[in-house]
Amino acid sequence: MRSSTPVHPHDLSDSDLALITALQHAPRASWARVARTVGVSPPTARRRWEALVEAGAAWSSAYAVTAPGLVTGLVEVRCRPGTVDEVAVQLRSEPKFLSVTGMTGERDLVVTIVADDMEQFRRLIQSRVATHEAVTGVRSTIVTRMFSEGSRWRAVGSPETAAAAGSGDADPDPRGEHALEAQWRPVLRMLEADGRVAPADVARELGVSEAHARRVVRRVLERGWITQRIDVSLEQTMWPHALALWLVVPAGRLEATASEIAVMPMTRMCAALAGGASNLYVIVWLRDLAEATAVEAELARSLELRVLDRAILLHYYKRVGHLFDVRNRHEGRVSWVGDAAV
């Protein structure tokens, strides 16, 4: 049993992990539901969560990847020696650049772009990345399907935990999606700022009743147009490292292989790619760097695939809209919907 008292500001105790997992299963569950799941009072659950956020150990994120019309892609960037931090800090200010990550290996940075359409995706690469004087190379691929991403990862827990923490709400609204297309962006803007924003505040923003606002939020989350997740800092001892793998899988086996990788406990991201040498991109979390070779070997041994390239994550300059300095301290947020850092 791990101690209940962290020895490092970002180390996570058993009670921290239980709380984080409950919120990962249901980020908007009431504090009463969360409290029942973790066995504390609602005020205690809330205080513990606020303490984790204040310490930078955990936080809530909201983002859009699969909303209608959006194009998601990965852009690998090579920089002149000594300029990586400078380039990354400039790139991360672009709202549509969801994440900016420093990597080892053949690329210095990997930028995750979520664009409104293919034309915007192309323009962002040409005007915001390729024209930077310190950038020496750019290579892009399109994400065609997201088999798994950070919202599905769990610190600890089981399906039973998920059922206990869930909201319990059903979607009774049979109407089509047309109205949602005008509403999901304002809802996303509010969830970016506060993942637990009150339905009354959403109602005021949308100009609808509180009951209707609840339905809108529920529907955009259920359809996957907006994704919420609870993230934890890599500045802790349980999962301090991340390995990125560019894989080549036979086309006829891609879905089956990706589905198997997606449900592995260490998998943080598993995405099908088009337009490049690799057709599957995977990120796994590691407890120790020595695990990298073992993870790669196990995938190659148990599945029909070839590892085209690999890299170790060095630093998140931007992680799903959240900004971090070179010491991994949280220093702000850039709204995907808006135009400015906050």
Count the helices. How many? 11
CATH topology title of the domain at 14-55: Arc Repressor Mutant, subunit A
| The named CATH superfamily of the domain at 14-55 | Winged helix-like DNA-binding domain superfamily/Winged helix DNA-binding domain
Order of helices and strands: HHHEEHEEHEHHHHEEHEEHEEE
Q: What's the main sheet like?
A: 8 strands, antiparallel, barrel
Helix-residue proportion: 25-40%
How many E-type strands?
A: 12
CATH class of the domain at 14-55: Mainly Alpha
- Class per helix and strand makeup: alpha+beta
Overall pLDDT metric: 88
User: What general outline do the C-alpha atoms trace?
Assistant: globular
Strand order of the largest sheet: 2-4-3-10-7-9-8-5
- Measured by DSSP, the beta-strand proportion falls in 25-35%
* Straight-line distance between termini: 39 Å
Q: What Rg, in angstroms, do the CA atoms define?
A: 20 Å
Low-confidence stretches: 1-9, 157-172
At CATH level 2, the architecture of the domain at 14-55 is Orthogonal Bundle
Task: Describe the overall structure.
The structure is a single chain. The protein has helices at 14-25, 31-38, 42-55, 84-91, 118-129, 159-165, 178-193, 199-206, 210-222, 254-262, 291-302, and strands at residues 58-63, 71-79, 97-103, 109-115, 135-148, 227-232, 241-248, 267-274, 280-286, 306-319, 322-324, 330-333. With 342 residues, the chain is an alpha+beta fold. It has a domain at 14-55: Winged helix-like DNA-binding domain superfamily/Winged helix DNA-binding domain (Arc Repressor Mutant, subunit A), CATH 1.10.10. It has an eight-stranded antiparallel barrel with strand order 2-4-3-10-7-9-8-5, surrounded by four helices. Helix 1 packs across helix 6 (159-165) and helix 7 packs across helix 9 (210-222). It is globular and about 50 Å long. The protein starts with 13 loop residues before the first helix and ends in a 9-residue tail after the last strand.
